[in-house]
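(2Fe-2S)-binding protein
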Amino acid sequence: MRIVGHPVLPDLPADEVGFTFNGEPYTAREGEPVAATLLANGVRKLRVSPVAGEPRGIYCGIGHCYECRVWLNNDTQVRACLTPATEGDSFTSERTEV
């Protein structure tokens, strides 16, 4: 479920990187946004709303909203649609207590 050729966009590098999301391993093309990798692997729910507990995922896909925010290495919240996959990173829906 990944676009491999596009008439306007440049091809992604062939190099792959590995990261985890909620403890599950994923493989992305180097530089590919985390949200794109997860979407290509059927992951639609990235977190739940802290107010109503409703599922949240990719909404705008271009960094204007914050619906796709996830925790990077249990330290910083990032927007998954803008954050490139990097080897060894760990992304989670919720921050865990240290």
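thats it. The chain has one domain: 16-92. Strands lie at 16-21, 24-29, 47-48, 55-56, 69-72, 76-79, 90-92. bye
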